[in-house]
Amino acid sequence: MGGSEVDLTADELYPVKVGLIFSVVCAPAHWDKEKVHKETNKKLGNPGTSAGEWVITEEPPESWTERDPGNPGKCTEDNRRHWLLNC
């Protein structure tokens, strides 16, 4: 994940890729949508858009669904999931 060492067994959210409109985060598989939303905004902060927050992408673009059919998607670790968010 980005070349830095992270503890994928920790009950913590990690940014995978942060962009201007879309971001991907890695979160524990037992976290629900609301927890991912809250922790993403706490960790990444205000994206600087009129929306003012990161939200779970309800209809992921084709570039995401080619790899993963839904949101959240798979992680290399069974105990984690990747979530696509937009602002």
Topology:
Elements: E1 14-18, E2 22-28, H1 33-44, E3 55-56, H2 62-65, E4 73-74, E5 80-86
Please provide a written account of the structure.
This protein is α+β, with helices and mostly antiparallel strands. The chain has a domain at 28-86. 18% of the residues lie in helices and 26% in strands. It contains two helices and five strands; from the N terminus they run ββαβαββ. The protein has helices at 33-44, 62-65, and strands spanning 14-18, 22-28, 55-56, 73-74, 80-86. Strands 1, 2, 3, 4 and 5 form a five-stranded antiparallel sheet that branches. The protein starts with 13 loop residues before the first strand and ends with a strand.
Throw out a few tags for this protein.
2 helices, 5-stranded antiparallel beta sheet, globular, 26% strand, 87 residues, single chain, alpha+beta
Strand content: 25-35%
Largest sheet: 5 strands, antiparallel
Number of strands: 5
Radius of gyration over C-alpha positions, nearest whole angstrom: 12 Å
What would you say about this model in short?
This protein has helices at 33-44, 62-65; strands at 14-18, 22-28, 55-56, 73-74, 80-86. It is of the alpha+beta class. Strands 1, 2, 3, 4 and 5 form a 5-stranded antiparallel beta sheet that branches.
